[in-house]
Amino acid sequence: MHETGLCDEIVRAVLRRAGKRRVAAVRVRATFAGHEADPEVVEQGFRVAAAGTPAQDARVELVTEPPAVSCRGCGAKTPAADALALVACPRCGGVDVELSGDTEVVVESISYQPDALTSEVPR
Ligand SMILES: [Zn+2]
After folding, report:
1. Could you read off the pLDDT of 94-104 as tens digits, one per residue?
2. Can you give the pTM of this predicted structure?
3. N or C end: fewer C-beta atoms under 10 angstroms in the chain?
């Protein structure tokens, strides 16, 4: 599945930053071209990819953004929020627009669990 490789990447990026700290929550911003990501699928995939790592209990907050459309006429970059932006530039009305076809994933923020508390919290 497409999301699986994506989740591996997210987990790798998180662990690189987190080191040995236990991760409480991760905020991920993703630009998807061509298909919508299901946040549940991504969270599940994250859990699988993060199993056995300090990030395994992390809550995943996925913020998805539409891919950007760049206009060759005026240089404007606009998010392809609606179908019209894919056809004509909202700024100059030019039709020489190009959809950036990249899937981009950015780990925006990571919050950590306070280590002193984790061993003593009753469940
Ligand atoms: Zn334009």
Report:
1. 999 988 766 77
2. 0.67
3. C
